[in-house]
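User: two proteins, same treatment. go.

Assistant:
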Amino acid sequence: MMNAVIARQPGGAEVLTVVERAVPQPATGEVLIRVASAGVNRPDIMQRNGMPIPPGSSDVFGLEVAGNVVALGAGVSGFAIGDAVMALLNGGGYADYCVARAELCLPVPDNLPLAHVAGIPEAAFTV
């Protein structure tokens, strides 16, 4: 089990709450990341304010994270257990663990702290 952040109802930051959820398991082409830091994006605020989330998205906030790979789904290459990564997600980043498509993960340079790179994936993949 893990901790994750959702909104109890639409509103300000006071509606955010920590809930317990099962640790997600990586499907084919995905990696499981132990989250160290998460970015805060406008869509997170819109979701918190009550905007419906897209179909297939998580009710757990967080579109980008930085952390370490702890498991690999079938068919994943280029990453290994323990690798530091930053990733763009379909929600689920405000949690202890999240899954990300391997092609939406980037390696973190050794000289950059995870807390400094958690906000990069959204901008990097947009560019």
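Protein 2:
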Amino acid sequence: MDCGSYHYFICKDDKTKYTFIPKAKKWSEAQQYCQDNDKDLANIESSDLYTTVHEEDFPVWIGLHRDGGSWNWSAGHSEYKKWKSKEPSSEGDCVSISSERKEMAVQNCAAYSPFLCVSDNVFLVKKEKSWEEALEYCRGLRSSTNSNLRFDLISLQPGEEHVYMMNKVMEADTDEVWTSLSFLAGEWLWVNGADMRHTDLPSCPAPQQYCGALSKHDTGRIKTRDCSQKKNFLCFWV
């Protein structure tokens, strides 16, 4: 690796005791750190590797950060609140999670740590459109980097998938969000072709209430609404 890149490192003393240091430093800085603590950068014999070098708990950056006095996620929403003891502190404005215990802690945002990225194929569109306009909007989207991506209005199944989508619904500017559920030819279906697993939909919906929406006031069920109403909506890509 480039000696100027930042990594965690292992020191070793004269008694062949290894110490993992969860502070990202350049190679020369790591060497100096070890020497300042009466050690040196580890020279690991092959026989040592699996008997003396163990898994360690270290901080990993996540998207939670302090913004104007409140805690916000850089993207999405989460109710995860497993803080380390005496946290959150005033030591910084950015949050890491420990690699083993999965406990969150506040750190100075300038610290060097590994990090986790997330790729999500579902996204909220904060535009107020009718159900048909929302469908056309999603299907009209194009990727500038991948011409094979296809976009559509979202479908969802009961259970964990429903709970996951509700996290996104809570970020909407409207109280309800359109899905691709539609009542056509006497039956409910997802117009994107997904399997229909919901069994609690009305077999004879009220006049004009032929489209499905998710509400912030979630009851675990999809609401049937007038398709001409203007709402935010969820698109996805495959």
